[in-house]
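Saturday, quiet lab. Running sequence design on the structure tokens for the scaffold JK sent over.
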């Protein structure tokens, strides 16, 4: 039954992609031009977009500017981006591609540019599990992802793992927590707003 449900979800998105691609081809969103001249990328945007950001996703959603694999940012020159935002997408990148992907993101960031992201926090999920009668069902979707192939999680995160992988990718700073309610350039209503989200940012 679960396999059938997964196939139906994939077929639904296949049909939507066809419709979206027609819209995207003929009614493409114009790239934002911020008054301060800064360039912000929103990777794996889905439907959570911002007028400040260049919204990039593998699917041509209504407000998507660029449809492409977010692991490949070769369309952007080195040292050309002020901020990369990625909310609950990094965990979908396979572990054997993760360091290379984050290195690519580091490449396009300017010196002092910021990678800001949110991922499911294993430590918070464990706390939630322990306070909810150790019910595996209560955390399984946040831990492993959903039914469709594109929505499965490939890595599990906490602060220690984040610091390790970011260092491997070439970031030299220390990851710091960011607050959805107080940080600048964040008007997204996405999964980073959830209590189980590990929200970190790091400067290049």
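Result came back. Writing it out in full:
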């Amino acid at each position: 039954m679960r396999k059938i449900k997964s196939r139906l979800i994939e077929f639904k998105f296949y049909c939507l992609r066809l419709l979206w691609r027609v819209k995207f081809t003929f009614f493409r969103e114009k790239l934002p031009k911020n008054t301060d001249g800064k360039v912000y990328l929103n990777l794996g945007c889905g439907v959570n977009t911002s007028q400040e950001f260049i919204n990039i996703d593998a699917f041509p959603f209504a407000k998507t500017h660029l449809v492409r694999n977010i692991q490949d940012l070769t369309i952007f020159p080195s040292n050309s981006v002020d901020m990369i935002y990625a909310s609950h997408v990094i965990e979908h990148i396979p572990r054997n591609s993760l360091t290379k992907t984050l290195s690519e993101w580091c490449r396009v960031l300017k010196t002092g540019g910021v990678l800001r992201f949110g991922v499911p926090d294993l430590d918070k999920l464990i706390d939630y599990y322990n306070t909810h009668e150790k019910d595996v069902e209560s955390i399984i979707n946040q831990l492993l992802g959903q039914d469709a192939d594109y929505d499965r999680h490939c890595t599990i995160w906490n602060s220690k793992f984040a610091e390790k992988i970011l260092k491997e990718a070439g970031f030299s700073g220390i990851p710091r927590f960011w607050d959805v309610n107080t940080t600048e350039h964040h008007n997204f209503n996405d999964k980073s707003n959830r209590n189980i989200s590990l929200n970190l940012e790091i400067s290049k």
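Notes for JK: The longest helix spans residues 2-26. Helices lie at 2-26, 95-108, 122-130, 140-144, 159-168. Ask whether to fix the surface positions before the next round.
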